[in-house]
Specification:
The chain is α/β, with parallel strands linked by helices. It has a domain of 176 residues: P-loop containing nucleotide triphosphate hydrolases (Rossmann fold, 3-Layer(aba) Sandwich). Helix content is 38%, strand content 17%. It has a seven-stranded mixed beta sheet with strand order 1-3-4-2-5-6-7, sandwiched between helices. α2 packs across α7, α5 packs parallel to α6 and α7 crosses α8. The protein starts with a helix and ends in a 9-residue tail after the last helix. The relative contact order is 0.16. One of its GO terms (molecular function) is GTP binding. It holds the Pfam family Ras. It is a lipid-anchor.
Amino acid sequence: MPHLLRQNMLLPNPPTVVMHDPRTHLRHLPPAYSPAQTPLSRERDFAPQVRYNLESPRKPKFRPCKVIFVGDCAVGKTAIVNRFCFDKFQSNYKATIGVDFELINFSILGHNYSLEMWDTAGQERFKCIAGAYYRNASVIVVTYDMSKRDTLESAKKWLHSALNYNTSQKPLIFLVGTKADLLTKEEFVRMERLAGLVAAELQAEYWSVSARSGFKVTEFFQRIAGLAFEEAVKQELKSIKNNPKETATQSSVKSQTFDLRSFFSSRFSPQKNGCAC
């Protein structure tokens, strides 16, 4: 009988618990793959001025960050993007024709920030088409296959080509070695040593990842989002410093002055209609 009563009672549905994806919710600046060698940022967290600016009542709106992936054909550009965006891996990827596009949203220090990831084709016949998508890139990811040393040499040419389309700004540069799972321990150490020299030459931050096993893929994309977000905040602070009057006008809040005399006079003065008591 109590069981039947419980079935007939109209009970409210239990509240749904929304779990935030820890991969895309950042409260601290993700560390570098090699903190001692990165030319981008050796700080362990976001700069104090960045946090201070974000705590102000004014809520800044950030444009999506354009990230382009360049490198030889079949080095694993599509594989690492799909591993992070969809948590999947396929060993028989078809070669990218032209450009593929993915959008991933982050929440960084409570603010929305998006990465536009442009996966460009690595075949020479599509280089002219892909070059049209290089412009206005905030981040350039130069990718090479750790099991093929010649793709590391080609990385310099790909970066030079991408930078030719981005002369007005200085994008963040990453050199990423893929397919780390295919190497032995000795080969892995040897290739990382060579890639570290190339990264220093290119003024790029180096990472080794594996789309098949997921090794360091999440940490790599978090690092991109964190550094790009910090750079966007710093650019906003720079624009505020250069245009203080315009920014103050846009972000000012209308203050209302409180006159104590007018308050009491309006409250206790005789009204036109009816009794004033």
